[in-house]
Design a protein that fits this description.
single chain; mainly beta; six-stranded mixed β-sheet; globular; 562 residues; 5 helices
Length: 562
């Protein structure tokens, strides 16, 4: 359910710099009943749909979404990968840029599209509500321009998601209360359906009808809470042409590896004998942590009178712990970097950040937690700082010069240097607090994520709000600041908003701090963000109107605990 208006109205002319068309949508957040895996449950949705409604725009458009919270608890919505120039007020992460929208109220968010083009997505950004509250954002080329490849015959959004038989909020609250590991999901879904490999699911499997000989654009989104995924289509090659809202050099592949938070634009040509073929997604996990080892399926069905073969062929996806297959795919990503889609990779770095990424323990006085045998709770950290969400959102506090909610002394390097990826001889306990990073407007930043062997080492999908950035280098082991930069890709690195930090490895990203406001940086595994693998970044205003954060809107959702 949405409304579309194709005109510029006075309020936006006065207060924003919209250059494209303006669109309006209504999102009604409410409980709806869904039946999957032989049982029915009530769950939070937008407009009674799972996945939620799609937003369709052209590059440079502006969207106003009126979020009506008819649920029973507060919620926020984030526009993942949209840079929101100068407008953190509508970015959405709870207690970072706003407080939750109270039940029974509404809040209108303004989404400003700029350089993004391709596929992004929106999702809840409070507790674990994004399990069922999410949907696609489709950004078409600006009027008068076209795709950098032949226009496909058709297109289809493919949303990968988690399915819990239990109430997701109960799963979340139980683990938070105890400090223990979170229960894994019971299934994955493709466009809301688990697929024929699950009980009570054969007749509801999602089907994509294709015409023989034609090419289709698949807009693939990993909305899964805690698992990275392999995806493929039986007997069909895929061609990756975009990721995270930017074009890539074409990659011909039998499978993709997509991490939570990422999106990929993939071409597939119906060039096989007319029949039925499974598309499937299965997890990649390189750690000892529990994960949902399930395969979700959908059907690519050629239009015609043919009968389904028995069995329908499945794609030969890599094994769940096939690190080589995962790395072989991710290292192929390159920006298109054409004359029509140029890139500008930052070269003259003014701010260096080295950030360890760890799974830790949090000390509980008197062994009062049940998360570990020693009475502590599971935690996570960046530079051994485990993020604690404040009672008032950081953006509001920062605007009011209220520094009681946070401090600006987040360390820009590890507090202790050690053999990060070898035998651990430092404490596994993290320090808790609400420390943020402050950047001057225009600083040219290189941030190196360094995975560690503390706790349970594994891949981490690291996401930064408010920016796209360039992944200029990645490798295994400890980052060497003398030799590793010699191997950076400064010609055509992928421009993304979410990366896969390899297990016991490092990844280097670069961006210019030219978007004033408060922006969240975190692991997109929900359990790790909950445990504290996050930090807020404040980019100061630049001294002119065009380089300064926009004024606070007249209404922001009130903070319940302030």
């Amino acid at each position: 359910m949405y409304r579309f208006l194709g005109f510029m109205f006075l309020g936006c002319l006065l207060f924003c710099k919209a250059e494209g068309t303006i669109h309006h949508y209504d999102f009604v957040v409410k409980e709806s009943n869904f039946t999957r895996l032989c049982s029915t449950k009530s769950m939070l949705t937008v407009n009674d749909s799972f996945p939620g409604p799609e937003i369709h725009v052209h590059k440079g458009d502006t969207v106003f979404v009126n979020v009506h919270n008819q649920g029973t608890y507060g919620i926020t919505i984030h526009w993942h990968g949209v840079k929101m120039p100068r407008n953190p007020w509508s970015d959405g992460p709870e207690y970072v840029t706003q407080c939750p929208i109270p039940a029974g109220t509404n809040f209108t968010q303004e989404i400003n599209f700029s350089t993004e083009e391709g596929t992004l997505w929106w999702h809840a950004h409070s507790d674990w509500s994004r399990a069922t509250v999410h949907g696609a954002i489709i950004i078409y080329p600006a009027d008068g321009t076209s795709y950098p490849y032949a226009k496909p015959y058709g297109e289809q959004t493919i949303v990968l998601a988690s399915w819990y038989k239990a109430d997701v909020m109960e799963v979340y609250e139980e683990a938070v209360a105890s400090g223990a590991e979170f229960n894994t999901s019971d299934a994955f879904t493709i466009n809301g359906q688990p697929g024929a490999l699950f009980d009570c699911s054969t007749g509801t499997t999602f089907r994509l009808a294709v015409k023989e000989g034609e090419t289709y654009l698949l807009r693939i989104i990993n909305a899964i809470l805690n698992e990275e995924m392999f995806f493929g289509i039986a007997e069909h090659n895929l061609t990756v042409v975009g990721t995270d809202g930017f074009y890539t050099k074409p990659i011909n592949t039998e499978y993709i590896m997509i991490t939570p938070g990422q999106t990929m634009d993939v071409l597939v040509t119906a060039n096989q004998p007319a029949s039925y073929y499974y598309m499937a997604a299965s997890p990649f996990s390189d750690s000892e942590a529990a994960f949902d080892n399930a395969t979700t399926t959908a059907i690519l069905q050629y239009i015609g009178n043919q009968s389904a073969p028995s069995p329908i062929p499945l794609p030969a996806l890599p094994g769940t712990n096939d690190t080589t297959a995962a790395s072989n795919f991710t290292t192929k990503l390159r920006s298109l970097a054409s004359s029509a889609h140029p890139i500008s990779v930052p070269k003259n770095i003014t701010k260096h950040i080295l950030m360890t990424v760890s799974v830790n323990l949090i000390f509980c006085p008197n062994d009062s937690c049940s998360g570990t045998p020693d009475g502590d709770r599971l935690g996570a950290s960046l530079n051994n700082q485990s993020f604690v969400f404040p009672k008032t959102d950081i953006l509001e506090a920062y605007t009011r010069n209220n520094f009681s909610e946070f401090t600006t002394d987040f360390p820009l390097e590890p507090p202790i240097y050690f053999n990060f990826t070898g035998d651990v001889n430092v404490t596994v306990y993290a320090e808790q607090g609400t420390k943020v990073i402050e950047l001057e407007y225009g600083e040219v930043v290189e941030l190196v994520y360094q995975g560690t062997n503390i706790g349970n080492a594994q891949n981490h999908p690291m996401h930064l709000h408010g920016f796209s950035f360039f992944l200029v280098g990645t490798g295994l082991g400890n980052f060497n600041n003398q030799t590793d930069p010699d191997n950076y890709n400064l010609i055509d690195p992928p421009e993304v908003n979410t990366i896969q930090l390899p297990k016991k490895g490092w990844s280097a990203i670069r961006f210019v701090a030219d978007n004033p406001g408060v922006w969240f940086l975190h692991c997109h595994f929900e359990r790790h963000t909950t445990w504290g693998m996050a930090v807020a970044i404040i980019v100061k205003s630049g001294g002119t109107t065009s380089t300064s954060m926009r004024p606070r809107p007249a209404y922001m959702p009130p903070c319940p605990n302030s």
